[in-house]
Design a protein that fits this description.
4 strands, alpha+beta, 4 helices, 36% helix, four-stranded antiparallel sheet, 31% strand
Length: 97
Amino acid sequence: MSVYVIAEFPFSEKGAQEFMDWTKSDDGYAVTKAWAGFELIQTLLAEDNKTIYLYEKWASKEEHQGYLNMRVEGGLMDFLGPRLEGEFKFQYFNDVD
């Protein structure tokens, strides 16, 4: 059964824009969409123009965690770190319908 992930990134305003630009790059969502188990990703920008939420759907929690591990090992935190104003977080959800 698929799982849903909601990730929250408290960026600076400039950091949010740079992240949105990154998602369109060859290293951004193109890589995400090619990962095994990927089903959906949607980027949401809060009214503060800084906080970004990612709404994601994955085939399993394990596949999403494998994807996250690949991103961390690939240096994503080096990109995110200077742009964040706080810690990012994510939660997993199950569809109950």
